[in-house]
Amino acid sequence: MMSSDSRPATRWPRTIGQVVAALAIYLTALLAINLLITGRAHGQATEMELTAPKPSTLATGRWSVRLGAGGLIAPVYPGSNSFIVVPAPLPDISYRAGLPVLDTIYVNGRDGLGVVLWRGGPLSFGGAVGYAVGRWQNWAPRLNGMGDINPTARGSLFLRADFGGLGLSLQGDRAFGQQNGTTVTFEASYRRRLTSRVMVIGLVGTTWADSNHMQLWFGVDPLQASNTNYPVFQPGAGFRSISGSLSGVFALSSSWSVNATVGFSQLLGNAAISPIVETPTQPFGLLGLSYKF
To answer: What pTM does this model have?
Structure first.
C-alpha cells in the first residue's frame, strides 16, 4: 500500500458532504449483502479482516477513504464441512478528529461504525457498533429443526497496542436481541513490508464465549432435541476457537491494491463436540480489490 502523504491534500474527498453521501450508499449495499448471504460465513470476518491503516498515521482533520470488494470462501455455518462463496464488501474509511476524547472515527467491514476514544503512545481504546449475522436452519440438512438465529446489532469495546510491526488487540463483543451472548477475543498480528509494493500480515487469535453464546450457536435445548435426532446438549462458557491467517497486500499503483487472505479457525472444547458440528477445522479465504481515494 502506498503512503497517502505523497498525494496532494486537495484530492477527493474535498467536503464532508461527499464522504457522507458515498458512505451512505456503500453501507446500504454492505448491509443488504450481509442480510442476504454474508451471514452464512459467520465467525470468519474477524480472522479475515486485513489490518486497517493506522489512524495515527493521519494528520488531524484528515480523511482516509478506501473502498473495495472481493470474494469470500468460508464454511456455510460454524462447524460445517460445506463451503460457500459470497461477495465481500471491503470498506475502510476513517477521519482523524484528534480531540482529547475522540481521536478517530472510522467505518470498516470488521467493526462497523467505530471510534477511537483515546490514544496514548502505543495504546488506543475505543468502541464500535456493528452487525451480528444470523443463521437459518434451511442452510444445511444438519440444521433442520434447530430453528433460526436472527441477525442483530452488536456492540464492541477494544484495547489495542501498536509496537511498529507488532499489534495486540483485546476486544469484547456483545450481541443484542436474541443473540444476547458475549465473546472476548485476543489477537496478535505482525506486518512486514517485503518490497515497496508488497506487504504481508500474519495473525493469530483466540476467542472465549459465555454460556449464552455457546448455547445459542452450539447447544441443543429440549425443544430442538424434540425436533431433531440430537440429544440435549448444554455447553458452558469457555474458549470457542483459535484462529490463524496470512494476508498479503500488493499495490498495483498509488491507489489500487489487491488483497488476499488464507487462514483457518479451529473450534475448541464444547463447541468442537456439538452435535451440529461436522468438522471443527474451518478453513477460509478472501480475494479482493480496493481503491484508495
So the answer is: 0.81
